[in-house]
């Protein structure tokens, strides 16, 4: 069988007739010799485009009718298609007698097939060159064949026949085929260092599919590799804005990875001094002692997860104000640091602090990305883009994050490690249920130390000899401090600065100041940040709880004190428990002695004598009714 590229003789007495060549990778065209054939109206060109897109396979008559008229074909639709086929036959084979089938556009029971050789249709040539490139062992030669294949494209498939050419599956599939070959070609070119050969094809493909992140990522990498980092950065910013404006999404992992690699290449001279792993952990506390059970539990949780192949994403360290959460977290981080050789990152989130407003997740991410070598001016503005870039930067690394003084889960949800191998230690004064449930963190609640550990804390700060010389006074101090590490530290600091004052004197002062915070300068400020985070009704309940005579309070008794319904009182106690200002045991709430003293101090300041009297009266009436 002769192909359309072969020379075909005209009838006797005629001249040599050149073959017909077809194009569909761009406008639909048919050429003979140096001239274009006139393909007729839109519908006839669409019939030819379908035949060419099928590349030698049968196109059903029903498919042609549906393509030309969609859902409302006329009664004459089939006859019209036959007429188009006849016209195309005579275009392909000039001089073909009327009603003759010819040898190229052939009728089948189900429809029609255009017999077309590889060299006479750009689509077939494109596929043959791409297949040869994939088989090629020489990367440079493969890139050249890819470039030759992609140079055949002169625009979108079946250009000029929109919107059908943009929506019909057969044309959409050819565009997808092109996009995949562009991606394969770009990957080969990047590996071979021959990006310049592919840049024209990449630009053309991206222009046609501006929201294709995979293509955009490869264009950015190719531009960066050829020294066009500024242009690559501009393209990234453009596509980031386009994704947000048109689709309402942030760049995905592939595009973010290309962006990060672009920054590394562009900023390599500036970050050369920053390649060392960050080591940002605060120094370990010089007087740290005890807490071996808590530290051991944390290490066992991590080891158990590792043994079962589960990543430990985070440890949620929480407890009441002054219980030593940060000190414990820092000691734990230093113990775990050798297992995270790619570095340690630290941030004080200022969730409960006088040092300024709490840090947003975006501020935390910007700080961490800067620590990992990326300058502030090159970072995206959107939170999700920052988070994606951070996860990309963390991918494959083993890093330890210490996120101290967290105010809420939203501060850390985007900062948690996204891949196995890294760990976040998060401290907070609130029980962060979201971090535990949605973030997959192990809870690590911190209670006041045991009496033995509290004695060790005091001895480490004052010296074992001084504590041993006045053991009963030391025990009294520990009791008055409620074993709270911060209170012990404040008392020990006073004793150290006044060596002539005996421990018995200090214990006597604390005893005489029972039910108040006199002698604990600095403790009210530490408590105040938790108190200020309460809603007004719960803050009032906290103050009035100091009027309860017993160590534990029921929901009903709390309701009587506050003059509210039990449901409201229960919600208030739950809020106090969330902020670690009470501990719930067996349905009853207990408040630490020093917190009770703080609540009493606040009540005397903010509640009138009449309000306190009425609260006591309601409580007595409630007790008398039982």
TrEMBL record:
Residues 12-116 form the OmpR/PhoB-type domain. Coiled coil: none annotated. It comes from the Bacteria. Belongs to the AfsR/DnrI/RedD regulatory family. The keyword Transcription applies. This is AfsR/SARP family transcriptional regulator. It holds the Pfam family BTAD. The keyword DNA-binding applies. InterPro entries: AfsR-DnrI-RedD_regulator, BTAD, OmpR/PhoB-type_DNA-bd, P-loop_NTPase, Sig_transdc_resp-reg_C-effctor, TPR-like_helical_dom_sf, WH-like_DNA-bd_sf.
